[in-house]
Design brief:
Elements (H helix, E strand, L loop, with lengths): L6 H9 L14 H11 L11 E6 L2 H8 L4 H9 L2 E8 L6 H4 L6 H5 L3 H25 L3 E5 L4 H8 L4 E10 L15 H4 L4
Antiparallel strand pairs: 1-2, 2-4, 3-4
Length: 196
């Protein structure tokens, strides 16, 4: 059985998509980022919770503050990327649930009344949304360089507050020369899928 999505789109989103380590100087506009978000906001999450928060790092001063928290191997590429986004999980996402999940507004208090319950749900669902965001970047004809080689606690203190947990930093732009490493192997279907 073939996929409904045409092969060109499959290549753009998955087969030819790569983590970018270098970028051209072409800027990434706010309009592009809004178009990406307006697409990926429809990705499914539990109870339609929407804990992902995106902090765009545009100013040179903010970029300099961020770079100091990046692992040494990630500093130069973060300094040079046209746009950098800090992706975090909002641990107070439950306040929006009566609006976002009107079919069951009681979910806010029934499942998410304690901070540990919210933190676990926020981390999982924001990670799902982060993956959608990366695919959305690809759908916009851009490349993403997601990185967890970063002092996340330092990033939280520098850019966020105690209600937000940083997940990763994503460099965004048009890929430059030698942007990606050769394609690494992937596990085969029968190494991953088990039928019981």
């Amino acid at each position: 059985m073939s996929l409904v999505l045409d092969a060109t789109a499959q290549d753009l989103l998955f087969r030819e998509a790569r983590t970018a380590n270098t970028f051209t100087d072409e800027p990434v506009t706010d309009e592009q980022v809004q178009a990406i978000y307006d697409l990926v906001k429809y990705g499914p999450t539990a109870f339609n919770q929407t804990p992902l928060r995106i902090t765009l790092v545009r100013s040179p001063e903010a970029r300099e503050r961020l770079v100091q928290h990046m692992a040494e191997g990630n500093q130069a590429k973060t300094a040079a990327a046209p746009l950098v986004a800090i992706l975090s999980a909002d641990n107070e996402f439950h306040e929006e649930l009566p609006t976002l999940f009107p079919a069951f507004p009681q979910a806010k208090d029934l499942f998410f009344s304690t901070r540990p319950a919210r933190e676990g749900a926020a981390a999982l669902n924001a990670a799902l949304q982060a993956a959608y965001f990366i695919i959305g970047i690809r759908a916009a004809g851009l490349a993403a360089g997601p990185m967890t080689g970063v002092d996340l606690e330092g990033v939280r203190k520098e850019f966020l507050d105690d209600d937000h947990t940083p997940l990763m930093v994503v460099n965004i732009g048009k890929p430059g020369e030698g942007a990606s490493y050769p394609r690494s192997p992937r596990l085969a279907y029968d190494e991953v899928v088990t039928t019981v």
